[in-house]
Amino acid sequence: MATTADFRNGLCFNYNGKIVKIIEFQHVKPGKGPAFVRTKLRNLENGKVITNTFTAGVKIETVRIETRNYQFLYKDDMGYNLMNSETYEQTAVNEELISAPKFLKDGMEVEVMVHAENEEVLGVELPQYVEFEITYTEPGVKGNTATNATKPAKIETGAEIRVPLFVNQGDIVKIDTRSGDYNERVKK
Fold first, then answer.
1. Which CATH code fits 129-186?
2. C-alpha to C-alpha distance for 155 and 171, rounded to whole angstroms
3. Nearest to 110 by CA among 18, 118, 120, 100
4. In this structure, which topology does domain 2-62 adopt according to CATH?
5. How far apart, in whole angstroms, are the C-alpha atoms of residue 22 and residue 6?
6. Under CATH, which number does the domain 65-125 receive?
7. What letter does residue 178 receive in the DSSP assignment?
8. Where, residue-wise, is CATH 2.40.50.140 in the chain?
9. What digits encode the pLDDT tens for the residues 103-159?
């Protein structure tokens, strides 16, 4: 058991029968009345973010979550197949548990959050930045804009993103997997 004094970003605990993770928290000690803690919590089962206020000193039941390195192998009718990098054990994961499934490519290293007591997979996080080759995009026309303009482009996984006009087919680009935004063009 822990209390609100033990709160830190990333702490996982049971809240209303669900496993949640603290995204951010703030201890507040008003001039009048008891102290309390404002929190933003992410439900690990469905990814929804909720806000809650806890009275200072409330006891919570912490949950031990392990982060393990896995490698994405392939997708089939069972789900997304991942292999543990240490034990070579394979696991099938549902698409809902993956942070950005459209950016998964064969052989990619991912982090899997696992409930330590029952070995249940709670989520799959991709690396923040991933490099992809542009497989199709319309050629950009020089001088047709005065500001930052973008155009649609397809990457090697089949996902469509927005890129600046100077990016051409065959270029390698770095993408932020959390937002799906173009970050930069990679030099070959």
1. 2.40.50.140
2. 10
3. 100
4. SH3 type barrels. (2.30.30)
5. 11
6. 2.40.50.140
7. T
8. 65-125, 129-186
9. 998 999 999 989 888 888 888 889 999 999 999 998 876 666 656 788 899 999 899
